[in-house]
Design goal:
Elements lengths: L1 H13 L1 E3 L6 E4 L4 E9 L2 E6 L3 E6 L5 E6 L2 E6 L8 E6 L2 E9 L2 E4 L6 E5 L4 E2 L3 E2 L2 E5 L4 E2 L3 E2 L2 E5 L4 E14 L4 E14 L4 E14 L4 E14 L4 E3 L2 E9 L4 E14 L4 E9 L2 E5 L4 E5 L5 E8 L7 H4 L3 E3 L3 E7 L4 E8 L5 E6 L4 E5 L1
Parallel strand pairs: 3-7, 3-9, 4-8, 4-10, 9-11, 10-12, 11-14, 12-15, 13-16, 14-17, 15-18, 17-18, 18-19, 19-20, 20-21, 21-22, 21-23, 22-24, 23-24, 24-25, 24-26, 25-27, 26-32, 27-33, 28-32, 29-33
Antiparallel strand pairs: 1-2, 2-5, 5-8, 6-7, 28-31, 30-31
């Protein structure tokens, strides 16, 4: 009888009850609370449900120390260590803070709260998050849906994929691919060796790959995009965009605003729409092909190397071809370069085009 009385006192103080239907530990909580987990190793499943209750289920209850205070559920491993699979149900309006030595983490359901996960080695999966999101894993993949808030996602070598991110966005991986539907405020999106795929990117940050390709459907704001050796493709841009690759091809379509594109030893293909600002296309060893919309108002200064002496205009323009009327032609004897100027629809913002070892082609779309 004394032992039973002691158990009842403990239960009433901690607020942790045995759930007769599920056999798990049940804790009545208020919305806006926090689930805090600190374990060495486990595979963890968290389910979001519409109850003001946290429910724990595992095969190793003795390996856990569970505490509830100030609307915070704290789960740590006991001195004997924890070896079981852990499944937890939490309210939709709740915060999560996880520190895990190793193991996979899966969050099922849409969460209205902040999510913080620090995992030394495992995959992480989540659905829609409304709140600040910080996820770091030492070597696994990160996969999720939309984040309505800021996002800081980092993996030492895995792939990272997510839907739309509405807040400040930082996504970094040591060697995997990055796939994002959209980011409204890019800070850093970086992979040391993989590819980057995005539908929409906006903001004032940086998108880069150490050696892979970068492909973005629409870019706006003031963003720097680079790859050490891969191709870069942009299907639409407005704002002030800088693009650079060490040895790949740059393909630009539906360009508005300003674009500064450079490749060390690849080709550049660019299609300009009306509404551009001053722009520059440069390759050290490749060709440049420009497509101009019929209503584009611009000036084009096309410069290429002078491979041999010329005595007339036709031989000078051997490496520059255009659908538009030539307005001036210059030859710089000291640099051995030829510069041809064109005005489109009466002129407008200047587009500077230069290749040291290649041809320049300017066509009317």
């Amino acid at each position: 009888m004394k032992r039973l009385f002691a158990v009842l006192i403990l239960i009433s103080v901690t607020g942790i009850y045995l759930n007769g239907q599920t056999g798990g530990q049940s804790i009545t909580v208020n919305p806006g609370g926090t689930l805090s987990i600190d374990l060495s190793f486990t595979d963890l499943i968290i389910n979001v449900w519409q109850k003001n209750e946290v429910l724990l289920r595992t095969s190793d209850y003795q390996g856990l120390n569970t505490e509830y205070k100030n609307n915070r559920v704290i789960i740590k491993q006991s001195a004997s260590g924890f070896t079981g699979l852990l499944t937890i149900n939490i309210p939709a309006a709740f915060n999560i803070n996880i520190g895990l030595g190793a193991g996979n983490i899966k969050l099922n359901g849409d969460l209205r709260g902040n999510l913080e996960i620090y995992n030394s080695g495992g995959d992480i999966y989540f659905k829609n998050i409304t709140g600040k999101t910080i996820i770091q894993t030492g070597g696994g993949d990160i996969q999720g849906f939309n984040i309505d808030g800021s996002a800081n996602l980092k993996s030492s070598g895995g792939d990272i994929s997510a839907g739309s991110v509405k807040g400040l966005c930082s996504v970094v991986t040591g060697g995997g691919d990055i796939k994002l539907a959209s980011s409204a405020n890019v800070e850093v999106i970086k992979t040391s060796g993989g590819n980057v795929f995005m539908k929409n990117a906006a903001g004032y940050g940086e998108i880069s790959s150490g050696g892979g390709n970068v492909s973005i459907d629409n870019v706006s704001g003031n963003i720097r995009i680079s790859s050490l050796g891969g191709d870069i493709r942009i299907n639409g841009s407005k704002g002030k965009i800088a693009v650079m690759t060490g040895g790949g091809t740059i393909r630009l379509k539906n360009i508005r605003g300003s674009i500064n594109a450079k490749t060390e030893s690849g080709d550049i293909v660019a299609d300009f729409l009306s509404g551009i600002s001053e722009s520059r296309l440069t390759t050290d060893n490749g060709s440049i092909r420009i497509g101009a919309a019929g209503n584009l108002r611009a000036k084009i200064a096309a410069r290429t190397d002078d491979r041999e002496w010329w005595n007339d205009e036709s031989s000078a323009l051997k490496n520059i071809r255009s659908d538009f009327k030539l307005t001036s032609l210059k030859r710089n004897k000291s640099t051995r370069q030829v510069e041809a100027a064109y005005e489109l629809n009466g002129g407008g913002p200047l587009i500077q085009v230069q290749t040291d070892h290649g041809e320049i082609v300017i066509r009317k779309n």
